[in-house]
Amino acid sequence: MADITIYQKPTCTTCRQAVQLLKDSGKPFTAINYYERAFTKTQLKSLLKKAGLSPKDVLRTKEEIYQELGLAKKSLSDDELLDLMVKHPDLIQRPIVEKGEKAILARPADSIKKLL
Known about the structure:
By secondary structure, this protein is an alpha+beta fold. It has a single domain, classed as Glutaredoxin, CATH 3.40.30.10. It has helices at about 15-25, 40-50, 65-70, 80-85; strands spanning about 5-10, 30-35, 95-100, 100-105. The protein is globular. The N and C termini lie close together (about 10 Å).
């Protein structure tokens, strides 16, 4: 059985809902607050690959930092976006749940059931 890891921000409502769903499932999991234990570029790239997502797919466009950096007006490569996401974790949609060779962006939270 593959281990389940949820990358989340504890103050995020969707993250809290996803963590509760995991607890309710009875399956063991690890919760990682990626604000305290930051993603590396390689780790984030690998996670997105497992989910079949590009950095643009998980970009939080309503965040203040997105506006401050003027990202709506810029055309950045995936590598450049990954660098920014590692530096500014508020740019990453959450939670991301990983199980073995699969990962999903658990929005809405109950989409997590696909991995259980």
